[in-house]
């Protein structure tokens, strides 16, 4: 979901690529609608009742960051196609890149902390440290949210400094982004400043996410094996609940993996910007982004209840 990797100066004329871009825009609209519903459903309850479960608060925060991120990426995509020869570091694109960097980092951290909460609250480990975290973690939620915003802001400022210095260097030396000198300066800055900074920024929350997911899936797997020995099979309600939880976690992990890989591939330049392979990869990523809010709607009990009430109100039933 990288909106920072588009290199301007070229336009997409391939019909297949244009079709994929159209599909991308539709998938982004679906993702925006799904995350918007999550924000509305849980956010209204949070405001009215002033009470919400910690995991649901993280879901609202994650949904808000994804909603804004999808909107920023869509806006940048439209700008790039309307101005294919625009200067890569002009004020408009710097402003969009600033928003993208912040929202991207916030999305990674909110996803990571959500995996931490799932792991601590659902897993059945009996280690004293784990039990202590289970008791204390909910009270730390305000500090967790503030720290996520603070870390995202700090890294965004570092990204902005690098982008702005490149912009100033282009203006000072009257360079064009598509000539040899301009490309060499850009490549040097990206290779020795932006790329290491990106890898550090993205790898830290990703490592925590994977550790928590491995622990949680391991715990659920052990619990399912024990449940199979005492129940009549997979049709038991308890087993179905465990299977649904496991599938929801696996979908969450798959989305996070695809999200992280898209960032790394784009930063490393594996897929040439605006190439057909690039749009194919982006379509796969945004398909996951569009599907995951739908999975959340059916796996979260509060969201499922709101969805049922909306259906009943439309049908005119009490």
Automatic annotation (TrEMBL):
Recorded family membership: Belongs to the G-protein coupled receptor T2R family.
Transmembrane segments: 17-46, 140-161, 202-224, 245-272, 278-298
GO cellular component, one term: plasma membrane
Membrane topology: Multi-pass membrane protein
Species of provenance: Gorilla gorilla gorilla (Western lowland gorilla)
Cell membrane listed as a keyword: no
Listed name of the protein: Taste receptor type 2
Location relative to the cell: Membrane
Pfam families: TAS2R
PANTHER family membership: TASTE RECEPTOR TYPE 2 (PTHR11394), TASTE RECEPTOR TYPE 2 MEMBER 60 (PTHR11394:SF32)
Keywords attached to this entry: G-protein coupled receptor, Glycoprotein, Membrane, Receptor, Sensory transduction, Taste, Transducer, Transmembrane, Transmembrane helix
GO MF: bitter taste receptor activity; G protein-coupled receptor activity
